[in-house]
């Protein structure tokens, strides 16, 4: 067996074993050299121009050489339906004059026969010496093998090639349009997502017993406490001063009362002042007793057991508080409910006892179901500066209540709506906001 025939068979087998169209195009422009030597090989496709160039990994379609080769390929695809040497006279004058700058003198054009109504693809090979008849015949045999394999990728395996796929797509477009219109009337639940926190269901709110400044916070966040355990203490500097003044005022009032009592024995006029002095003494005594009770309550203690819910304790130290101002909460670890924050743009009509599904960050594959019990009518500011409607939901019976402090995302289900409205609700709202309608 001759070397040329052996190379031809090996290249045909190589072409049949490629994994994809890109690999086949690389084989065509580079490995054909084993059968017929050349200086340059170019593969042209009427759909995308120059798709492969010998010796180049990736062809840049914006390069001047490839743009010139694309024009030449389009002209040859029309002028040369049969393979053979290229006559430069059939090219445009500008392209003909540039031939010497880009390609060697001798060149062959090999159309790859894919069949009628299929894209035209051609192989251009060029070198300095003219091609012989034997070399042309070998290239024709190899071109038929290339075309057979290339047809699988270019035309496809189904529906009669590209033309069949185009006819199929033209037939499917109306059906797809009808299906989309029909699907837009399918009722679906209107759902929105909202960031979620697990919060206490029945917390004990610990408030400041009087006006003052927080001096010490005696517990840590999430610490379990027992009844009577100190939680925080107010600064007692001002209260001590008031107690000292009140004590001295009471002593003065009692001294005046004793003096008037002694004078009343001999002086009838002192008797009229006795009742007034007695009242001042009782007033000062009541003031002192009130301040003493406040001193006893200056260290606030836990009224029940539970987990402390508060921010960073250092944020409270030195902060002035008013009487009745909340400082922290006490809650049981698993006596919890769901608090979701619904953005104003996602506010939807929720039916009574609307369902809510919670996906916690620690267990996103184990959702928890809950029932909405209240929705704030007005959006309030959140700690992150955004505004949202507060939604409170109780966890359904049978669900294991998550521990306090977990976070996640809730999906709220509203009234059923049409699928078309569900898809276009946000775009319509954005368009109305942009247009000011």
Automatic annotation (TrEMBL):
Localization in the cell: Cell envelope
Gene3D superfamilies the record matches: 2.40.50.100
Domain of life: Bacteria
GO CC annotation terms, alphabetical: cell envelope
InterPro entries linked: UPF0194_transport
Coiled coil keyword on record: yes
Protein name (record): HlyD family efflux transporter periplasmic adaptor subunit
């Amino acid at each position: 067996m001759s070397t040329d025939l052996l190379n031809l068979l090996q290249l045909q087998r190589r072409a049949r074993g490629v994994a994809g169209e890109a690999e086949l195009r690389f084989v065509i422009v580079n490995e054909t050299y084993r059968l017929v030597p050349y200086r340059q090989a170019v593969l042209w496709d009427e759909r995308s121009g120059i798709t492969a160039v010998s010796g180049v990994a990736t062809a840049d379609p914006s390069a001047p050489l490839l743009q010139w080769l694309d024009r030449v390929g389009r002209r040859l695809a029309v002028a040369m339906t049969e393979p053979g040497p290229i006559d430069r006279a059939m090219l445009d004058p500008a392209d003909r004059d540039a031939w010497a700058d880009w390609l060697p003198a001798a060149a062959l054009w090999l159309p790859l026969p894919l069949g009628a109504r299929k894209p035209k693809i051609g192989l251009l090979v060029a070198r300095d010496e003219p091609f012989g008849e034997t070399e042309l015949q070998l290239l024709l045999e190899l071109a038929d093998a290339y075309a057979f394999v290339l047809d699988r990728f270019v035309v496809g395996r189904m529906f009669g090639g590209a033309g069949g796929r185009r006819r199929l797509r033209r037939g499917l477009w109306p059906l797809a349009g009808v299906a989309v219109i029909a699907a837009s009337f399918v009722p679906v639940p209107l759902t929105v997502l909202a960031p979620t926190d697990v919060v206490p269901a029945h917390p004990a709110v610990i408030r400041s017993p009087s006006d003052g400044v927080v001096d010490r916070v005696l517990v840590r966040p999430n610490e379990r406490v027992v009844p009577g355990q100190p939680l925080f203490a107010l600064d007692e500097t001002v209260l001590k001063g008031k107690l000292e003044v009140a004590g001295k005022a009471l002593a003065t009032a009692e001294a005046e009362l004793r003096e008037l009592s002694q004078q009343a024995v001999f002086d009838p006029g002192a008797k009229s002042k006795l009742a007034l002095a007695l009242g001042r003494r009782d007033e000062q005594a009541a003031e002192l007793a009130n301040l003493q009770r406040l001193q006893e309550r200056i260290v606030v203690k836990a009224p029940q057991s539970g987990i402390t819910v508060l921010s960073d304790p250092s944020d409270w130290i030195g902060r002035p508080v008013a009487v009745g101002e909340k400082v922290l909460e006490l809650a049981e670890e698993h006596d919890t409910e769901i608090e979701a924050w619904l953005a104003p743009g996602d506010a939807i009509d929720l039916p009574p006892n609307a369902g809510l599904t919670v996906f916690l960050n620690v267990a996103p594959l184990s959702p928890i179901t809950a029932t909405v019990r209240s929705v704030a009518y007005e959006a309030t500011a959140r700690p992150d500066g955004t505004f949202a409607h507060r939604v409170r939901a109780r966890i359904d019976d049978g669900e294991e209540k998550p521990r306090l402090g977990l976070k996640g995302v809730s999906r709220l289900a509203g009234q059923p709506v049409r699928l078309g409205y569900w898809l276009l609700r946000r775009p319509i709202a954005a368009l109305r906001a942009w247009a000011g309608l």
